[in-house]
Fold these 2 entries.
Entry 1:
Amino acid sequence: MITTLHIKNIGIIEDISVNFNEGFNVLTGETGAGKTLIIDSLAILAGGRFSKEMIRKGEEYSFVEANCYLPEHKLAIEGNITVSREIYANGRNTCKINGRLVTVTELKCFMKDIIDIHGQQDNQNMIDTSTHIKYLDNYIGKEILNIKNKYQELFLDYSNIKSELKRNYGDEKEKQRKLDLLNYQLNEIKQANLKENEEEELESIRKRMLNSEKIVENLQIAKSNIGENAIDSIDISIRALEKIEYLDKNYEEKLEKLKTIYYDLQEIEREITDEKEKIDFNEEERAQTETRLDLIYSLKRKYGNTITEILKYKEDIENEIQTISNLEEYTNNLKEKLNKIDKEMFDLANQMDKLRKKYANILEKNINKELEELEMPNAKINIKVELNDNQYQENGINKVEFYILTNIGEESKPLAKIASGGELSRIMLAIKTVLANIDKVPTMVFDEIDTGISGIAAKAVAQKMKRIAKTHQIFVITHLAVIAASGEYNYNISKKVENNKTKTVIKMLDKNEEAKEVAKIATGEINEKTISYAQELISISK
């Protein structure tokens, strides 16, 4: 479970830290106080998307950190795991698990087994039939996962081969034209006989050619000054020290150093002389260099930005020529490979089809049981698993769609055509409840799951939350008194202005404060009568 959450510089949240508890945690507060920002922060920590507009005005970065108590986890240190994510306005993103840097993908993969966030968007996702197969496969779990992974590996190869077979070189004339073009390009690159780093070497030579007079002039100055001044002066100094070196060891050491400098200068003078002689370029050498560079520039315009890219393009051309020249054999090999993959995929797809049909019946029964407890006794979910015209898709050959019957005597219809906002909220809660018993994710977050419900339905949702909270840590944002009254721990989120800036404040409520908050949610007023009503509601709901 999440024991501590620290949020900094997200929206109107300046810097808050809050301790949470296991069981049923309820978050309440006025609209705009920052409740959803807390859920957004958890989503960011779970590897979700982040927009730089979420960074608090005037700040350069946002930071979210949570301590999770997971005593059975292999990464836990004394039962605890610390997860953090820091995001800067320039896009830099730092994620850590127990202080170790990880990628966003690694963070997301790690957190998916720790926290499940149900936001307001999930109700709309429920209408999207493409998500339905995901719910069913998540329910089936490991039994289908291994099969699905093997299938998807084959599906990638299958798709690539299909695309390759669709490549059309046209008729014989078109194929010959293509071959002529490729052979021309290949010969042009081959004749150039390019070498790695050749362009850099030629550019260096060209630069020396263009500045040859300046180079010769300054090399001569350097040579003359070394020979006429430095070497002669040092030679005189050496002879002077040789006359007194026997008198003191220090004189002997100085003499040795001068001799070393003398020999080094002689060597440098010879090297400068050699360099000066190399600068004697003739017009033919200049022309050859310019011609070679022009050729390289021409090839770069056609085949790549560097010699390395041009040589890689040459390899690609050779492969394509080979493919076109042996197209019939190449195509037959691809078809043979495709047939082999097709048989393996068909077998795996049928295994998944059987599993989905088997578990669809079990899942719909369990969801319907939950719906009955959520005051939808006549509602029946029907999960249809059909073959998708035997066309291979990423998830197999199945089309999975959730249908619902809301009234006895009517036909089942797609969720999008019949379910209201309140019904979708309860259907999603029913699915989450069933899946929660399977996936064992310790922390579940519900952002305004009470949308579109009230009365008896709201009470049923509260009871369902309490049941889930017996085996999971639950966070719920709510505007309903009956759900707030059911919480084991209530937190109020408010906002205040300091130094002309708005910031969020979060506080865990004691019993008296909880009663006042429930009274305010229920009636909009706080007085002796409403507080008494709230206390009674809390007593009944607990």
Entry 2:
Amino acid sequence: MTMLLSVTDLHVSIPFGRGVQTLVDGVSLEVAAGEIFCIVGESGSGKSITAKSLMGLLPRLARTSGTALFDGVNLLDKDVATSVRGRDVGMIFQEPMTALNPVLTIGCQMTEAAISVAGMSKHDAQHRAIELLDSVGINQAAKRLRQYPHEFSGGMRQRVLIAMAMMNEPRLLIADEPTTALDVTVQSQILHLLKSLVRRTNMGLILITHDMGVVAEMADRVLVMQRGKVVESATVETLFAAPTQPYSRALLAAVPRLDVIEQKEQPAVGNTLVVVDRISKRFETGRRWFTRQKDVLESAQALDNVSLTVAEGEVLALVGESGSGKSTAGRAIANLLKVDSGVVRIAGTDVASLSGSALRTSRAQTQMIFQDPYSSLDPRFSIGQTIAEPMIIQGVEKSVAMRQASQLLDRVGLSKQLLDRYPHEFSGGQRQRVAIARALASNPSVIVADEPTSALDVSIQAQILDLLLALKKERSLALLFISHDLAVVQQIADRVAVMRRGKIVESGSVQNVLQSSRHAYTQLLIASAPVPDPAKRAKKMTTISPLPDGAEDILQEVSPGHWVAR
């Protein structure tokens, strides 16, 4: 086995106050040709800093020491390694919309490095770009080269980054969390593509992730990091079967598993609080100007005759891919958008008919937890002000509201001493706890949680799920939990509704839908989900043929409480 990269005693530090903060502390690793080497750990463990040091992408004030030998060249030597990076060593970044320039076409961005670094002619570079886009599953590649990043979906943008990284045929590819924000089906396709590229070209792949399911499906060897140091290094089979370090065991124990059936006690369900009756919503997506018919208005059907209910003390999970209508349904229930037809009733009241003080009272009773707490928290407000604001709006005196905000902060597991701090001073998991505290401030009876754990590490995710379950039981909340992660859904939900193209295609208890699924789309989602066990690696990609129009209009009860579209 040919060794491509050998990193020895890597240290990375930056000035901090009057001293120095060490970000990476003595990391050593080796990557061979044709090998998939995974680096895992929680946020802040030093995974991405290690990768960026190899690519020369650290901040200007950062200091490195040690060696990272690739073909006899030390990648830590910025002057010497310039000729290697981008040509023999490539990188795929975590967020494709940030990594791609929004004002340049895909073709311009793909061919730039090939022309400037590898010396390709413009014609040859464009021809290779078309070949690579086609190889990563993007149709009409020649046309796509003339388009811009915003015209691509998240999964397609990630495929573009993979194709871009392969333009110069690198011998070593570094992929930093390439599937974190993707749906399970798209994630499965991207991972399958990366694995096939490694096997076909014999390149080495460093895959950075916090998803142990992805590690189990992809890795040959694994390096576990914590606080900048190497905790454990082993083959993937050894790590999952017999981890030697407590931190590794804790990471594996926190992973929700879809392949393990747990007996759940039946929730103490009360009155039905949320009734959604055949709601539909169509969004205008833009105008097609250059047609024979002027000002042709394009639109997309986000919701199509959706019906569901949620009771006190119950968790209903809405699952499906991006664009399936999950978030639109959640926003309709929270009365954040008006539906075109149908009715949403909260505690028997049609929320669309409310106005004035009645509307404010209704909105206080239905709160929403958003996916990205940093975007949903006002950076100008302290945490105390953020939590107290809903109570003040409802007429509570400021001093009383701040006292209750302190109690809520304590309830979600944060110190009362943090009330005067601002969102940027908190970690992602802490900010999500603040968002939960704010949602609880108005003492709601219904909470809509829209992908509240998708961007969190597994250990933080487990804490947030435990907190939501405890609060649901404590306050008899009706909780609508929106997610594309079926393993998380199995852990938290009592019932599941699967959405596809704006319609519910299957619904029922967790056991019925996830363990005895009857619809082809549900089966595809389950087959695409990564399993955190190397012995159960996915054997093949699963596909389904398009369903004929009207095939999902009618839900039929196939067993008590289990409904499937026919």
